Amino acid sequence: MSQTHQHHVQSYKDVKDRKLLLAIFLNILITAVQIVGGIVSGSLALLSDALHNFSDVISLVVSFIASKLSKQKASINRTFGYKRAEILAAFVNAATLIIIAILLIIEAIKRFQNPYEIESNLVIWLALIAIFANGISVLLLKKESKNNINIRSAYLHLFTDMLASVAVLIGGLLMKYYQIFWVDSLLTFLIALYLIYVGLDLLKTSTKMLMLFTPDHINIKDVVRLVNKLPKVKKLHHIHIWNLSDDELHLEAHLDLEENISTKEFNILLHKIEQVLHDEFNINHVTIQPEYKKEDPKEVIVQD
What we know:
By secondary structure, the protein is mainly alpha-helical.
């Protein structure tokens, strides 16, 4: 990796961390204000929004720690370093989204059965503040969320909380002008359902990565077909393809050769394979075991 590219990657990570820190600060302020406001006004939706904001703080802190850990260098005992820390953080954040959503549903059902009058003016103003602050946080992380599952998990926490605050604002207006106080519980329930929806998708994605599943966008049969077309290649087999992190896509496989070629010739062939796999599938780390007339299973996928 060139010095210029390394500097670019490091600068990107530093900017990402600074944005996370700012988002953490904003969400600590929102959480504190909403907890006080929710208690004073008696609004469950506002308290649920505060709880979600608190989960945002936790998720952002987890994401920040994971981002810092991912920069740690590899060692003899940790040959991959902490590169998978961000995937683990995304899994934790997704799980907390779902757990919080279930707790909110339980509380919403209880409150729906026993609704009571709520100080709607306070709810409206605090919802507006939360929308503004969460909106800034969402904009801060939007760009990075497209390329990093850890940041995407934090971004989803913030984005859904912004939507929750919009729902709280609507509820506050309905309670103020139409005295429909049960809408507070209804909105809490709908917010929780949305949290489960986005949480499950992120949980599914992070679990696949933790379990070293083949990424959804890659068809292993296409990989085999492409490599097998190269000169001197007989068959690619014993294949494993997985995401070490968002930035690293690994392939390891056995390569059955047509001829008993020299190490120098294999190096040339390996370079061609690496180029093809990178251009077609964005695989950037390739480990190949060359073989010639070796007696072993030649299936594409072999359970070791």
